[in-house]
Design goal:
about 325 residues, mainly alpha, Rho_GTPase_activation_prot, two-stranded antiparallel sheet, disordered N terminus, GTPase activation, zinc, Wheat Germ Agglutinin (Isolectin 2), domain 1
């Protein structure tokens, strides 16, 4: 761990350093990997993909960087930096504060703090439009509660609903579901007694995914997936999508994996709901993938690739995840 040299002579700094080293070693984990059976004997990409399997190696802790505001913070009363343990001098603009967990540090120290933010529920004011990793860290869950609860309700009573995810529910009712999640969290009632039309629940799920500040397939990886979809060879295309998936943040990866497994189950009822993997790709492509520049022309040009990426992830969910 790097420590500012001017603090080296302070005895308390050693205690803080030991504490931070312990936190770093505990938070550090192996990168998510997917192992291959008899990898040295597998040469064909098709055989290699079929040999992919889930292992505990894919599970890792959700790391989150601290959300320090650009502007320095003015603290009331005396404050000490929670990184270097030294006093924060000055009457105004003494340091910065993480808006998610409340960590107070010098502005210089904010560049050295590890990615170990643990958001405080008291600081999370809403569920919708909240960063995905922030929400799951705050609630200590694998996936956002909205995704879990909506999918559970849809699979309970809506898998045979014609046009599932394509047919829109009443926007006023969908907005009511959104407000209920923001107000009540996991205690919200989305059962049939509250919302008889399953399209309202499906619409709320799509709205949640669409309103994420960072999409499930992140802005940084958008071009990676678009380029993968343009590869003409089917085997190489799947390999490229798989490589892109492994680069997703863990919370995004787990949410996408769970959603694709659900959508694949939806296609098993295609006889009733008329929703094939291609149809679901058309619906969820622009929802899960958004270009970083938010250019309407770019989105229009990439719609075919967006649809294909989601379609392939549904069809090959058991291999890609």
């Amino acid at each position: 761990m790097t420590t500012n040299p001017i603090y080296e002579h302070l005895g308390y700094t050693s205690l803080i350093k030991d504490k931070m080293v312990h936190r770093l070693s505990r938070a550090r984990s192996e990168p998510r990997r997917v192992t291959f059976q008899r990898e040295e004997r597998i040469s064909s990409p098709l055989l290699r993909r079929s040999a992919l399997k889930d292992t505990p190696e894919k599970q890792c802790s959700y790391e989150k960087i601290h959300n320090f505001k650009v502007n320095v913070h003015t603290f009331r009363g005396p404050h000490w930096c929670e990184y270097c343990a030294n006093f924060m001098w000055g009457l105004i603009a003494q340091g910065v504060r993480c808006s998610d967990c409340g960590l107070n540090v010098h502005k210089q120290c904010s560049k050295l703090v590890p990615s170990d933010c643990q958001p405080d529920l008291r600081r999370i004011k809403k569920v919708f439009s909240c960063d995905l990793t922030t929400l799951v860290k705050a609630h200590n869950t694998m996936r956002p509660m909205v995704v879990d609860m909506c999918i559970r309700e849809i699979e309970l009573r809506g898998m045979k609903s014609e046009g599932l995810y394509r047919v829109s529910g009443f926007s006023e009712h969908i907005e009511d579901v959104r407000l209920s999640f923001d107000r009540d969290g996991e205690k919200v009632d989305i059962s049939a007694s509250a919302y008889a039309d399953i399209n309202i629940i499906a619409g709320a799920l799509k709205l949640y995914l669409r309103d994420l500040p960072i999409p499930v397939i992140t802005f940084d990886l958008y071009s990676t997936f678009i380029q993968a979809a343009k590869i003409p060879n089917a085997d190489c295309r799947l390999e490229a999508i798989h490589e892109g998936l492994l680069q997703l943040p863990p919370a995004h990866y787990e949410t996408l994996r769970y959603l694709m497994a659900h959508l694949r189950r939806v296609t098993m009822f295609e006889k009733y709901n008329l929703m094939s993997a291609e149809n679901l790709g058309i619906v969820f492509g622009p929802t899960l993938m958004q270009p970083p520049e938010q250019n309407a022309l770019t989105t229009l040009n990439d719609m075919r690739q967006q649809k294909l990426v989601v379609q392939l992830m549904i069809e090959h969910e058991d291999v890609l995840f």
